[in-house]
C-alpha cells in the first residue's frame, strides 16, 4: 500500500515536472521547434497526445494509461516506451546488481580487515573508505580504462556484451558505494564489539573470530542493509555516467539521450522504472531486516 | 566539606577509556585538508597569484605536451596550460558546489521546520514527500531539473541543490525532533517561556549546530555531482575551464594524453576529500562539545 | 578453604588506561575461596567493575593490567595465552552483568546464547544441536524460568527484565564454572524482581558456587556476602566480614556509605556526615519555626486524574482516578515500580500532559483545565527536577546562563549574575562553577544545578521525579539533605517520586503507593510502612533488601 502510494506520487510528480518543460509539447513531439513541422501536423499531434485537453484531464488520462501499463510512445524513436524500456532494463539491472554485490563484498572485507588489526590498519582502511567514496564515477572510469584497457589491455574499454566487458563498469560503480557501506559498517561493527553483549560473549569463552561471525557482523550489516535501497538508486544514477563512458546500452544512456532531445515519455518511463525498483528494493530490504533483526519483526516499524 | 569531596570529583576514572575517535587531536589529514582548502580559496579569489598564465591562451605548437617544468600538468589539444586552467576552474566548480549546497540546505530547512512545527498534517506531508523524493536517485532528479531548465551551469547548480535537499531535510527533521523532546526544552517550557522564545533561543541553535559539518561534507559531494553533469554535457560547457567540462573534452584524448584526465579529476577528488575530512573533524568536535 | 588454596587470588592489581596516565585500580588484593561469597562495594568510578573484569582478562581495550599475582583456578591470568584464557572464561568463571537487555545479544535466541558455553567448552550435552536444546532447557529450568522450551526459542527483548536476567545467569553458569562474577546483577530491576534474582544467586552459592559480587548497594550485599571489600577511587579502603562492614566498618568511608542508606532513618536526620557547613541548620527541627506559614488550602491538588495512552487494543491506562493534595512545607511521596504510572502522574501535575478526566488545581485555582497561554505566567509556581541530568541543560549554555534564563524576567540585568551566585550557594555549590558547562560537572553537581534552576523561578511546589536515582549513595545523601533543608527554609511543597522505598520513607510526610496506574494505598508514611493494608504494598515492602539492625516492622504483619 505504502509502496503503491510512493509509486503514484512519483508518477504524479513526474507528470507535473514534465509539464513545466518550456515550449509546446506538441512541437517537442515532432522534434522541437527546429523541425519546422506544419501547423496541421502540430495540430494532429496535439490531438493525438491529448495536449488540447485541460491539464486535469491530461493527468487523469496519463494515470489511467499507467494503470494499464501503457507508457505511451517515444517522440524521438517512434517506438512504444515499454519496448524501449524492456530493451534497456536488463543491462542496467545486471550492472547494478553485480555492482551492489561487489560493493558488499568489498565493504565486508575492508571492515573485517580493519577490525582485526592495529591502529595503522584502521587508519589505512579509514582513508581508503573516504577516498573510495569521494571518487566520481566518470573519473574512476576513465582512469580504469587508461590503466586496464589502454596500458594493460586486460579488459575492453567498450562494453562488448562479454563478461570481461562487464568488469570495468561494475568496478567503477562498486568502488564508491563500497566506500560508503564500509564506513557505515565499520562504525556499527565497532559499536557492536564495544557493546556489553560482546563482553558477555567473550566472558563465555567465545573466540575473537566467533565474536565477529556469530555476533558483531550481523549488527554491523543492519544499517548497511538499510542503506542498500538508497545505494541501488545511487547506482542507477551512476549508470547514466558509466553506460555513457563504456557505451553500454541501458537505462542510463536511454535517459541521457531522452533528456537531451526532451523525449518526455521516455524520461517519464525511466524515472518510473527506477522508482519501481527502489520501491521493490525497499520492500526486500525491509523483509531481510526483519529476518535478521527480530526486534523489528515484533514491534513493526 | 565531606560532601563536596565526594561530590566534587571532577574526573570520573571510568570515563577516559573512550573510543580513540573521541579524543583524537587534529590529525595530519585535517591539516592537509585545511591547507588544500586554503589553496582552493586562493585559486578562487586570486587565481593570477598561483597561476599567472592566461587560461585561454592558445599555443597550437605546444599542444599535447606531457607534464614538464614549464607545464606542470601538461597542455591540452590547443596547447593551453592544464595547471593554469585547473586553477582558474576552481572558482566556477566551487561556486557551483557552494551554491548548490546552500540551495539544498535552505530548501531542506524549510521542509524540516514545516515538518516539525506544521503539526501532524505538516509532518505527514513532508514525511511522504521526502519518502517519495528518496525514490528518485540524486542524479535522476538532477536530470529532471535539467530537463525543465535546459542545460547550463545555473541549471546544474539548481539541479544538484534540489536533488540533495531530501537527504538534508531528513537529517534536519530528526535533529529538530530530538531537540524539541529534550529535557532542556521541557525545562524551558516549565519556566513559562513562550513557544517563540523557545524556538529561537533554544531549539534552533541546538538543532542547527550539526549543519555546519553537514554542509562542509555536502560541498564536496556537490562538486562531484556538478562536475558529473558537466561531464555529461549538461552543466558548464567545454571551452569554460570548469573541471567536469575539462574532463569531458579530455575523454577523446585519453589514450594519447592521460594528463588531461588525471589532473582535473585529481582536483575534484582532492576537493571532496578535504571537504570530507574537515566536515568529519567539525562533526567530531561538535559531538564532543555536546 | 580447600587445600589447593583459594579459587581466585589477586595481589597488588593495578589497571590503567591511556598508557598509564589514568590509573583506575591501584594495588587491589583479594581472594575468593571455594563456596565463598565475596562482595566488592563501591560507587561509580571506584574501579570495582574493572577489577572484576581483569579476572577474566577483559579489563577493556587499551587497559594495562599488572599484578604481583592474578590467579584463577591455579592459572596465571596475566601470562596465560588466548587459548588458556578462553578455557577460564565461562569454564572456570562466568560473568553476569547488569541489564541483560544489552548483555545478551539482541539478535540471537536465548537458546543460542545459553548454549554457546556448552559448545565452546565441549561440555556434556554440547556436542550436537539437539543435545544442546535439552541441556539449555535444563539450565533455564534451573534458574527458575518457567516454560523453558518456549523461552529458549525467544529473543531477549521478548522476555521480561527478570526472566532476561535469569537467562543471562543461565548462560554464565552453563559450562559449570566454579566462580560466578556478578557485576551489579540487579541494578536495573524493580524491587520485587530484584529479590527473586538475589534468591537465585543465593541458591547457586548454597549449591557450592563461589560468588564475586559487585554492587553499589549495601542492601544487596547484606543478603549474600560472607566478606565485603569496600573500594573507592581504585583502592581498597576497608574490608571485613559482612557483619562488621554493615555495622560501619573501620574506615570512615564505610561509615559514610552505611549512613547514606536512608532506609529507616527518621525524617530530618542528615544522611551525609558531617553535615556540610553550607546547610548546617538545626537538625531534626520539625517544629516549623522557620517554615513559611501554610495556606488554608493545599498548594497543589489532583482530583480523579486519569490518563490513557493510545486507543483501541493498544490503549494503556497510565493513570486511573488519582487523588492527591499537598500543602506548603509538606512532602507527598509517591512509590511504585516501573510502569506504575508515577511519571505520567508527575507530567499531569506539571501540566506537560492533559488529563483525560479529572482536574489539577494549583493554589486553589484551575491548572490543568486552562489554556497553556493562561498557564504560562503561573508556571513559575511549580518547579521540576527530573532524574536525567545529562539532557536537562541546554548544551550551549553555561551554568550561569542556565540559571539566568530561569530568573523572572523582571530581574534587573545587573543583579542577574549575583542572583545566580546566590542560587548556587543555596545548593552548596561555589561561584567558580558559574562559567562551566553543565556537561563538565559531576552527576551530583548537575542535580544541584537543576535544583537551583527550579528555585530561581521562585516556586512553591517542586515535583521531584526520581531526583537521586541516578546518583551514588553518598552523593544522593547530600542531595536529599539539601532538599530537606530547602523545604524547611522555604516552606516548599514536594511531590517526591521514587521507586526506592527507603528514600521515600526518609523524605515523605505522607506516601501514596502506585500500582498499574492506581494509587492503591495512601496515608502517613510511618503508618503505611509499618502497617501496610494493601497486599501490593505488603509484597513491595517484603522485597526490600534491608541492612541488619534496621527496623523490620514492615515484614511483621504478614
Keywords, please?
heterotrimer; A: 301 residues; mainly alpha; 79% helix; elongated; B: 290 residues; 12 helices; 0% strand; disordered N terminus; P-loop_NTPase (chain C)
Textual characterization of the structure:
The complex is a heterotrimer of chains A (301), B (290) and C (558). Chain A has helices spanning 2-19, 25-29, 39-49, 55-67, 81-116, 119-134, 137-151, 163-194, 196-203, 208-246, 251-260, 264-292, 294-299. Chain A has 301 residues and is mainly α. Chain B is mostly helical. Helices cover 70% and strands 0% of the residues of chain B. Chain B has helices at residues 2-7, 28-45, 47-50, 82-117, 119-134, 138-149, 153-180, 183-190, 195-208, 211-231, 243-250, 259-289. Chain C is of the alpha/beta class. Chain C is 34% helix and 22% strand. Chain C contains 21 helices and 21 strands. A six-stranded mixed beta sheet of chain C has the order 7-8-9-3-10-11, with helices on both faces. In chain C, strand 15 (357-362) and strand 16 (365-366) form a beta hairpin. The longest helix of chain C has 18 residues, at 473-490. Chain C is globular, with a radius of gyration of 26 Å. Classes of the chains: A mainly alpha (301), B mainly alpha (290), C alpha/beta (558). Chains in contact: A-B, A-C, B-C. The A-C interface holds A 194-197, 199-208, 210, 214-215, 218-219, 292-295, 298 and C 53, 56, 58, 61, 82, 86-91, 93-95, 97-99, 102-108, 112-113, 116-117, 120-121, 155, 157-158, 168, 171-172, 174-175.
Count helical runs of chain A.
Answer: 13
Q: Give the overall shape of chain B.
A: elongated
The number of strands of chain A is 0
Compressed to H and E, one letter per element, the order of chain A equals HHHHHHHHHHHHH
Element-level helix/strand string of chain B: HHHHHHHHHHHH
Taken as a percent bin, the fraction of beta residues of chain A is under 5%
Please describe the biggest sheet of chain B, giving its number of strands, its sense, and whether it closes into a barrel.
none
Number of strand elements of chain B: 0
The quaternary state of the protein chains shown equals heterotrimer
Task: Name the beta content range of chain B.
Answer: under 5%
Radius of gyration of chain A: 24 Å
User: Portion of residues in helices of chain B?
Assistant: 55-70%
GO molecular function (chain C): ATP binding; ATP hydrolysis activity
Protein name (chain C): ABC transporter ATP-binding protein
Family (chain C): Belongs to the ABC transporter superfamily.
Keywords (chain C): ATP-binding, Nucleotide-binding, Transport
Amino acid at each position: 500500500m505504502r509502496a503503491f502510494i510512493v509509486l503514484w506520487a512519483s508518477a504524479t510528480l513526474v507528470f507535473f515536472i514534465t509539464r513545466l518543460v518550456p515550449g509546446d509539447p506538441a512541437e517537442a513531439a515532432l522534434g522541437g521547434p527546429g523541425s519546422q513541422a506544419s501547423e496541421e501536423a502540430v495540430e494532429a499531434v496535439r490531438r493525438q497526445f491529448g495536449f488540447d485537453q485541460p491539464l486535469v484531464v491530461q493527468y487523469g488520462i496519463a494515470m489511467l494509461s499507467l494503470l494499464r501499463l501503457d507508457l505511451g510512445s517515444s517522440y524521438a524513436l517512434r517506438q512504444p516506451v515499454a519496448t524501449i524500456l524492456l530493451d534497456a532494463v536488463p543491462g542496467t539491472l545486471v550492472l547494478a546488481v553485480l555492482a551492489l554485490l561487489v560493493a558488499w563484498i568489498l565493504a565486508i572485507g575492508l571492515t573485517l580487515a580493519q577490525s582485526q588489526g592495529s591502529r595503522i590498519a584502521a587508519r589505512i582502511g579509514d582513508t581508503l573508505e573516504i577516498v573510495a567514496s569521494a571518487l566520481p564515477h566518470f573519473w574512476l572510469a576513465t582512469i580504469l580504462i587508461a590503466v586496464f584497457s589502454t596500458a594493460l589491455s586486460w579488459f575492453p574499454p567498450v562494453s562488448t556484451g562479454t563478461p570481461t566487458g562487464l568488469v570495468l563498469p561494475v568496478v567503477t560503480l562498486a568502488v564508491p558505494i563500497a566506500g560508503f557501506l564500509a564506513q557505515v559498517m565499520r562504525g556499527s561493527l565497532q559499536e557492536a564489539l564495544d557493546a556489553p553483549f560482546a563482553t558477555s560473549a567473550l566472558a563465555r569463552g567465545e573466540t575473537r573470530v566467533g565474536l565477529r561471525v556469530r555476533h558483531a557482523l550481523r549488527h554491523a550489516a543492519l544499517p548497511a542493509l538499510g542503506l542498500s535501497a538508497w545505494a541501488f538508486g545511487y547506482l542507477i544514477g551512476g549508470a547514466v555516467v558509466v553506460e555513457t563512458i563504456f557505451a553500454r546500452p541501458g537505462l542510463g544512456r536511454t535517459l541521457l539521450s531522452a533528456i537531451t532531445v526532451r523525449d518526455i515519455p521516455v524520461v517519464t518511463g525511466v524515472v518510473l522504472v527506477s522508482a519501481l525498483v527502489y520501491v521493490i528494493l525497499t520492500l526486500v530490504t525491509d523483509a531481510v531486516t526483519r529476518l535478521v533483526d527480530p526486534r523489528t519483526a515484533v514491534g513493526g516499524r | 566539606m565531606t560532601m563536596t569531596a565526594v561530590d566534587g570529583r571532577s574526573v570520573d576514572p571510568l570515563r577516559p577509556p573512550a573510543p580513540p575517535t573521541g579524543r583524537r587531536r587534529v590529525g595530519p589529514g585535517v591539516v592537509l585538508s585545511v591547507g588544500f582548502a586554503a589553496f582552493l580559496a586562493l585559486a578562487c579569489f586570486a587565481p593570477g597569484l598561483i597561476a599567472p598564465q592566461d587560461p585561454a591562451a592558445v599555443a597550437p605548437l605546444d599542444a599535447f605536451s606531457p607534464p614538464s617544468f614549464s607545464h606542470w600538468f601538461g597542455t591540452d589539444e590547443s596547447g593551453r596550460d592544464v595547471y593554469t586552467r585547473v586553477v582558474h576552474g576552481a572558482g566556477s566548480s566551487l561556486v557551483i558546489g557552494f551554491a548548490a549546497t546552500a540551495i539544498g540546505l535552505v530548501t531542506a530547512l524549510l521542509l524540516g521546520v514545516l515538518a516539525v512545527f506544521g503539526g501532524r498534517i505538516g509532518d505527514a506531508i513532508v514525511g511522504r514527500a521526502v519518502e517519495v523524493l528518496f525514490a528518485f536517485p540524486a542524479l535522476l532528479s538532477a536530470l529532471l531539473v535539467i530537463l525543465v531548465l535546459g542545460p547550463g551551469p545555473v541549471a546544474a547548480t539548481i539541479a544538484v541543490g534540489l536533488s540533495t535537499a531530501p537527504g538534508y531535510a531528513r537529517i534536519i527533521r530528526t535533529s529538530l525532533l530530538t531537540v524539541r523532546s529534550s529535557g532542556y526544552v521541557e525545562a524551558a517550557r516549565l519556566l513559562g517561556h513562550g513557544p517563540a522564545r523557545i524556538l529561537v533561543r533554544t531549539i534552533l541553535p541546538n538543532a542547527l549546530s550539526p549543519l555546519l559539518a553537514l554542509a562542509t561534507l555536502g560541498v564536496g559531494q556537490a562538486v562531484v555531482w556538478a562536475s558529473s553533469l558537466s561531464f555529461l554535457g549538461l552543466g558548464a560547457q567545454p571551452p569554460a575551464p570548469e573541471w567536469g567540462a575539462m574532463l569531458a573534452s579530455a575523454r577523446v584524448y585519453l589514450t594519447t594524453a592521460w594528463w588531461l584526465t588525471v589532473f582535473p579529476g585529481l582536483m575534484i577528488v582532492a576537493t571532496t576529500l578535504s571537504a570530507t575530512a574537515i566536515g568529519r573533524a567539525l562533526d567530531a568536535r561538535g559531538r564532543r562539545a555536546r | 578453604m580447600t587445600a589447593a588454596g583459594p579459587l581466585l587470588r589477586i595481589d597488588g592489581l593495578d589497571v590503567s588506561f591511556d598508557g598509564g596516565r589514568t590509573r583506575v585500580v591501584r594495588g587491589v588484593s583479594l581472594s575468593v575461596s571455594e563456596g565463598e561469597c565475596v562482595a566488592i562495594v563501591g560507587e561509580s568510578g571506584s574501579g570495582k567493575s574493572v577489577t572484576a573484569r581483569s579476572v577474566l582478562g577483559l579489563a577493556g581495550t587499551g587497559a594495562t593490567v599488572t599484578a604481583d599475582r592474578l590467579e584463577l583456578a591455579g592459572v596465571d591470568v596475566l601470562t596465560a595465552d588466548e587459548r588458556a584464557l578462553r578455557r577460564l572464561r565461562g569454564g572456570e568463571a562466568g560473568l553476569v552483568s547488569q541489564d541483560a537487555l544489552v548483555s545478551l545479544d539482541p539478535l540471537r535466541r536465548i537458546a543460542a546464547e545459553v548454549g554457546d558455553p556448552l559448545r565452546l567448552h565441549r561440555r556434556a550435552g554440547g556436542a550436537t544441536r539437539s543435545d544442546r536444546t535439552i541441556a539449555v532447557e535444563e539450565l533455564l529450568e534451573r534458574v527458575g524460568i518457567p516454560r523453558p522450551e518456549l523461552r529458549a526459542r525467544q529473543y531477549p527483548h521478548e522476555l521480561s527484565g527478570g526472566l532476561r536476567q535469569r537467562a543471562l545467569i543461565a548462560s554464565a553458569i552453563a559450562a559449570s564454572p566454579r566462580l560466578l562474577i556478578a557485576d551489579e546483577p540487579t541494578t536495573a530491576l524493580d524491587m520485587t524482581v530484584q529479590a527473586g534474582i538475589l534468591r537465585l544467586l543465593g541458591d547457586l552459592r548454597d549449591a557450592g558456587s563461589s560468588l564475586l559480587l559487585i554492587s553499589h548497594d549495601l542492601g544487596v550485599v547484606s543478603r549474600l556476602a560472607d566478606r565485603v571489600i569496600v573500594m573507592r577511587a581504585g583502592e581498597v579502603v576497608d574490608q571485613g566480614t559482612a557483619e562488621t562492614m554493615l555495622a560501619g566498618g573501620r574506615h570512615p568511608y564505610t561509615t559514610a556509605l552505611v549512613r547514606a542508606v536512608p532506609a529507616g532513618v527518621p525524617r530530618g536526620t542528615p544522611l551525609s556526615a558531617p553535615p556540610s557547613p553550607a546547610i548546617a541548620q538545626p537538625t531534626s527541627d520539625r517544629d516549623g519555626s522557620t517554615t513559611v506559614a501554610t495556606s488554608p488550602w493545599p498548594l497543589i491538588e489532583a482530583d480523579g486524574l486519569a490518563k490513557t495512552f493510545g486507543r483501541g487494543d493498544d490503549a494503556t491506562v497510565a493513570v486511573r482516578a488519582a487523588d492527591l493534595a499537598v500543602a506548603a512545607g509538606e512532602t507527598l511521596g509517591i512509590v511504585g515500580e516501573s510502569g506504575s504510572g508515577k511519571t505520567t502522574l508527575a507530567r499531569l501535575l506539571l501540566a506537560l500532559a492533559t488529563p483525560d478526566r479529572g482536574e489539577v488545581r494549583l493554589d486553589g485555582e484551575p491548572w490543568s483545565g486552562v489554556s497553556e497561554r493562561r498557564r504560562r505566567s503561573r508556571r513559575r509556581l511549580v518547579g521540576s527536577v527530573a532524574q536525567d541530568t545529562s539532557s536537562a541543560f541546554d548544551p550551549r549554555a553555561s551554568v550561569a546562563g542556565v540559571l539566568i534564563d530561569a530568573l523572572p524576567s523582571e530581574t534587573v540585568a545587573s543583579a542577574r549574575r549575583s542572583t545566580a551566585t546566590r542560587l548556587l550557594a543555596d545548593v552548596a555549590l561555589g561561584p567558580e562553577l558559574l562559567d562551566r558547562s553543565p556537561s563538565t560537572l559531576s552527576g551530583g553537581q548537575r542535580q544541584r544545578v537543576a535544583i537551583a534552576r527550579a528555585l530561581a523561578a521562585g516556586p512553591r511546589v517542586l515535583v521531584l521525579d526520581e531526583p537521586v536515582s541516578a546518583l551514588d549513595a553518598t552523593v544522593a545523601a547530600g542531595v536529599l539533605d539539601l532538599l530537606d533543608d530547602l523545604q524547611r527554609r522555604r516552606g516548599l511543597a514536594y511531590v517526591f517520586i521514587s521507586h526506592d522505598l527507603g528514600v521515600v520513607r526518609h523524605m515523605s510526610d505522607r506516601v501514596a503507593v502506585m500500582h498499574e496506574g492506581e494509587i492503591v494505598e495512601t496515608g502517613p508514611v510511618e503508618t503505611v510502612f509499618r502497617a501496610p493494608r494493601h497486599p501490593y504494598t505488603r509484597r513491595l515492602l517484603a522485597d526490600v533488601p534491608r541492612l541488619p539492625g534496621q527496623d523490620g516492622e514492615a515484614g511483621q504483619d504478614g
